[in-house]
Amino acid sequence: MRADTVTKKALYILAIALLAALPCLGVLGAGGGALAAGGLGAAESRLMQRLYASQYPPGSYVEGEVVVVLEQPTAESLAELTGGFTALLEDGAGGSPSAFAASPTKEAVRLRLKPGLDELEAARKLLASPLVRSAEPNIVFRCAATNPNDPLYGEQWNLHGSYGVEANEAWDVQRGSSGLTLAVIDTGMDYNHPELLGRRNGGWDYYNGDADPKDDNGHGTMVAGMACANTNNSTGLAGLDWNARVMPLKALGANGEGYLDSVVNSIYHAANNGAKVINMSLTSSTYSQELADAVEFAHAMGCILVAAAGNEGDSRIDYPAGLTYVIGVGSIDENGSRSWFSNYNSSVDLAAPGQRIIGPKPNNSYDAGSGTSEATPHVSAAAMLVLAEYPGATPEQVWRRLKDSARDLGSPGYDESYGWGLLDANGALRVPLVTVTSPQDFTYPASGKVSASASSVNTTIRYLELWLDEGLIESHEFPVPGGSVNYTFGSWDLGQLTEGTHNVTVRAIDASGAWEGEHAITVYRNLSQPRPAQDWYLAEGTTGWGFEEYVLVQNPNAAPANVQVTFMKPGGSTQQYAYSMTGNSRLTILVNSLVATSDVSTYLHADLPVVAERAMYWGGRTGGHVAVGANAPDQDWYLAEGTTAWGFEEYVLVQNPNAAPANVQVTFMKPGGSTLGYGFSMPGNSRLTLAVNDLVASSDVSTHIHADLPVVAERAMYWGNRDGGHATLGVTEGCATWLLAEGSTAWGFEEYVLVQNPNTTTSSVTFTFLLPGGSQVRSVYAVGPLSRFTLNVAEIIPGSDVSTYVQADQPVIAERAMYWPRGSRSRAEGHCSTGSVTAADTWYLAEGTTAWGFDEYVLLVNPSEDIAHATLVFMRTDGSTLSHGVSIPGRARTTVHANLVDPERDASIQVISDRPVVVERAMYWSEKEGGTDALGVLQPL
Q1: 488 and 560 both lie in a single domain
Q2: Which of 96, 117, 138 is the last residue in one of the domains?
Q3: What's residue 17's pLDDT?
Q4: pLDDT at 29 (0 to 100)
Q5: Are the beta carbons of 802 and 345 closer than 8 angstroms?
Q6: Domain check: are 725 and 671 in the same one?
Q7: What is the pLDDT of residues 930-939, one digit of tens each?
Q8: Shortest CA distance to 323 belongs to which of 295, 283, 290?
Q9: Crossing angle for the helix pair 372-389 and 219-228, nearest 10 degrees?
Q10: Does residue 802 fall inside a structural domain?
């Protein structure tokens, strides 16, 4: 799963792998053992939430062993650890001190447990030690090879056949450099074989713990030879790279199996000892955070990592190919078709020949092998050729040359069988490298032109094209093609962007028309979602009917903030109160203590930008809901969810913050496209409650509110005699893209995605369901004009956690509703939220508590392919703060259980990320008797 600024054409926001095996935000308790009062650190918290049996299937790890990464990888630290856990660990659990001291890389240590102990429980206990950075069961890795009974093929179709990698043409440009090193993490290498003689550069045996990475299986020798066999020497076969050095790192044994510590230490060794490309023709179906950390380290050191996609022949994702920063390689046969054994999923980035590939075997012999193992070294060797031709190229630039030059196979553009297409080593050396120089990636440009540069050593560039999403905006032809060009497109301005998330792509086409390179960036326009502001409006609210109401205010500024709160009642009377907040703090206002029994809307004004939410509970807290406020009133509001059927009560709440009366037109849109319209008049500074059940008989319904003065609108729904309920702020305009991060059809949850089409023409809406492990399922529906559409997610994705990306051909509104059972009640409670139309660098969550019996979860979704590093700043009522770091893998969702970080506290949260993310918060109480969910308030940096 290669990190790439180029977004897959088939899906803008890429598959979100739900790596934390939390069945849904509300299902899992704290887990594990006792916790210190201060909570866990970032890494420990992240790993603790993964140490459950569902993440480590039987047979995926070695019984009686765990692997730890020490905070200080020293013999003294290891001795202190093993000495402190004598009840847990066997004598000599960490191996001999001399072997540990001799190993050049000591990041991961394998520990043996006493008989009968549970590996997961042992990992949890070890993780609590300050000596340990991470702990996991010892995952098993295997060679990704499938060996047929076919006779040895004497021809290397993989290099020069119709579906070969165009090696002969590539060699006319580049044959490799002896100054570059390819690391092969495998079963070792027969470095005395004629095809590999003189090519070894260092190495280590991390499987047996010695300095001799001799191959006792044969797999590693074949892989190394396919990439780098001695060529043009009148002996044996040809390798794709003629000259590169090979660093054999033995992580797998004679039976082709190896363990987590061996693989992790091999990656660190390669990165620390000068390897530029790391080949991993090995797989495991189990995700490992320690492996992911090693991969991220190697990427940061400038390494290109390449791995086999796996040989199960199905859609499962194997690792390390499924990790961010790894190029996953699938296999094709001589006819250009996906090999029957090659996995097909979102980890596949490129395809390469992988059936009946001839390679060297130990003891001066040769053989033919089949598997994604055989496909992988083709990509690794091609990357080495690109580095030899372009010595200053970054891993990102090498990847883009490999991607842009790939020969498209299967469905146009990206697909999960072939990735971006068949590796073309010749094309990778010739394709133009494009860079969008303005605007910057993942930004919110208000206006400006798009500028780009493109270059190639081995061809000249005639055209630069500007594309917005999938539409061509402008094409510029250079009268005299050049090897290096620059251009600013003048016909279109970024100020013309519509609401939502967009791809801006610049393509370069060479003079022959044979090679086309591109660079795509992500840009955002988001004027509809709330952000920190001095003014906030909360339409819903009541202190009657048995409700508790709270207004929660977050001051994210270092300076104190003064807050004026005005409560607006149905008849137009108001009450005002003033508050002072310290910097970086949270304020809780119990409205019941200020406003006697009454329905009420709230207007809040501060002298600094703040964030405001409202929480309500009823029935002795058997139910509750929460909603973020609006920054400003508007004349138009849209509410996608709503129903007066199925035992639901629905209310639309409208706040008129103006001194003058407002006339409000409400249009209800039904599933078939029929509509009902009503007009209402509101006094100034008042609140209007519409009981929708009195206006629309038993029907699902979306709502459009239009007023002659700016107002604010929310919707509240209740069911089961108000056993459950949820509330949501409306949105002021539609958008073509929506990301709904939370979701599950497992664990007893019902999930529905609601789409409102306020347009007068039918909209084509694509739902892309993003499943654990990164696989995707797409469904397309036509949503009629002026109508409401309901999708029961379980009918398409039964029994799974799921996030949803909604993409339409015109602006629509999308929400997600979820319900869960408790006891005999099938819908004991539920929550609802609109999606986010963009990601952002900074988010705020005003509400939040880990006290009073509440469980709080913060959901962070990273829609890009690079790892995001975020800091959660807990802002407490007294102004003190606590910071907590977390990493979110590319295309993934990470969950932070706030109770493990800042227990027994009321606190608002600020999330600051180095890459744009989407943030939600879910809270549950009384063993899921009630629960709420809210999208955060974004602030683009």
Answers
A1: no
A2: 138
A3: 32
A4: 28
A5: no
A6: yes
A7: 999 999 999 9
A8: 295
A9: 40
A10: yes
**What does the pLDDT read at residue 683?**
95
Is 373 known to be catalytic?
A: yes
222 and 83 part of one domain: no
Q: Within a domain: residue 28?
A: no
Which CATH number does the domain housing residue 89 bear? 3.30.70.80
Contact predicate 729/714, CB 8 Å? yes
Q: Tell whether omega for the bond before 439 is within 30 degrees of 0, i.e. cis.
A: yes
**Distance (Å, rounded) from C-alpha 190 to C-alpha 366?**
12
Residue 783 maps to a domain: yes
CA atoms of 567 and 465, how far apart (whole Å): 55
Which of 106, 138, 170 corresponds to the end of one domain? Answer: 138
Terminal C-alpha separation, the chain: 28
Query: What is the C-alpha to C-alpha distance for residues 440 and 458, in angstroms, rounded to an integer?
Result: 28
* CATH (domain of 302): 3.40.50.200
Tell me if residue 219 is catalytic.
yes
Residue 128's DSSP bridge partners are: none
Element (H, E) at 46: helix 42-48
Which pTM was predicted? 0.86
DSSP β-ladder status, 245-250 and 181-186: parallel
Residue 797: give the domain boundaries.
533-939
The amino acid at residue 490 is: G
* Predicted local distance difference test score (pLDDT) of residue 11: 34
Q: What is the pLDDT of residue 60?
A: 87
Beta-carbon count within 10 A of 44 CB: 22
Residues 113 and 59 in one domain: yes
The residue length of the chain stands at 941
In terms of Cβ atoms closer than 10 Å to its own Cβ (0-12, 13-18, 19+), residue 71 is middle
Q: Which of 45, 134, 190, 219 is catalytic?
A: 219
Rounded to 5°, the CA angle 153-155-157 comes to: 105
Residues 176 and 110 in one domain: no
Give the chain's largest Cα–Cα span: 97
Q: Give the 3-state DSSP-derived string for 495-562, with helices as H, strands as E and coil as C.
A: HHCCCEEEEEEEEEEECCCCCEEEEEEEEEECCCCCCCEEEEEECCCECCCCEEEEEEEEECCCCCEE
Among residues 45, 347, 373, 686, which one is catalytic? Answer: 373
Token duo for residue 814: 């999308």
Whether residues 718 and 837 share a domain: the answer is yes
Q: How many domains does the chain have?
A: 4
Q: Which of 4, 134, 186, 405 is catalytic?
A: 186
- In this structure, the answer to whether residues 67 and 187 fall within a common structural domain is no
Looking at the structure, do residues 554 and 675 belong to the same domain, yes or no?
Answer: yes
* Residue 932 forms part of a structural domain: yes
CA distance 765 to 783: 7
Query: CA 117, CA 126: separation in Å to the nearest integer?
Result: 13
CATH number of the domain bearing residue 520? 2.60.40.10
DSSP string, 390-459: STT--HHHHHHHHHHHPBP-SSSS-BTTTBT-B--HHHHHHSPEEEEEES-TTB--SS--EEEEEE-SSS
Question: How far apart are alpha carbons 359 and 161 in whole angstroms?
Answer: 16
Which residue ranges of the chain lie beneath pLDDT 50?
Answer: 3-39, 147-154
Structure tokens at 783: 């949503």
